[in-house]
Amino acid sequence: MPLPDFLRLRAIPAAVLLSLTAVSVGVYAFMRADGNSLVPLRRAAQDLFSTESDRESAAQRLVDLTIPMLDRSDTTGSTAKLYYLGAAPLTGVDPSAVSVPPAKELFAMETVDLLSIARLMYHTRRFGPADQLVEISLQRQDSRIDALRLAIEVRMDLGRDVDVLRHADEWIQLEPRNPRPHRVQAMVHRNHGRWDHFIISAEKAVDLTTPVDWVLQIELIDGYTHLGRSDDARREFDRLARFRPELVQMAPVTHSRLLLQEGNYRESGSIIRKYLSEAPDDTEALLMLGKLELAQGDLESAIQTFERAKKSDPADEQAYYLLGQTCARSGQRELAADYSNLHRKLLDAKVRMYGMEQQAAREPFDAQIRYQLAQSYREIGLKDLADFWDRAARGVAAAQ
The whole model's pTM is what? Predict the structure, then answer.
């Protein structure tokens, strides 16, 4: 069923946030005594998260439990209202029948409820309200790990990677033997192509994971090959092949890149061509094949392969760069200059967008910069990133 409009919690200015936080500790401690009446709501919310099917019925049970409490004028009543509003999109009930509690009442709610309701908001794609409830939770020390984990989920969807890395750092301080925050950091760095930082985080995650997470091991090998660390990649790849040989098939591009770096052109070509026969539009694989053909001196084939890669992903600047280099080597100077100019323009556009992403991270409630990012990514053909920033913009706008 289509979701109703986003719940619009009023955005809380930073100055108000600080002042409310200063007085909320006493109120929060005072109202904990009434928490028992909220236990059934918490259990119902937990059941909703753990239910794989019939979520609508689970959400309806939660809504039904809130109804006797909605008329209460205390913090319990306000908490029940937010549970109602959190579950409403999953049931089809009219959320406008219940008013949003004022900000000062949000600060009196227990952390466990704020996080549970924030997760409901998050899973029904109301990122702005979820982020506000998470921010209140982060002002406290109880349920700290849960708050950090949910903050990471929500803020990753809002494009706030700087905050995500900061939350992961704190999580690491609290649970130094937990591999998950290291994996979070590795994912953020990988998404931005920061392979040196990715490897540092991935190595820590691998060392802390028991039993061995072989999928993460493949990602680490991929990171090594991107940085040309073929000795490290070979050591870990041989380990993978020895203990889980069936998983070698999961990494044909990484395997081919490693073999190319080692000078084994024949086997590298065999692996990548077999993979492309099954996935002919894989841009990374096409670039890999083109580099192999270039290394073997087959310039004509390399140009054709890089053209296929450009057609597969018009926003991949590597294809234009490699086309420029290959055309120059083949004596096609004008065409080489054209491709080099296109590469520079695309790279400049991505640098500008990276700056906009940093601005978005510094201004978490600026919907306009996120809409601009969505439009910019759409203009260069990066649909997934455009959709991501469009969703982030809508989530922030919902909180205004």
Answer: 0.80
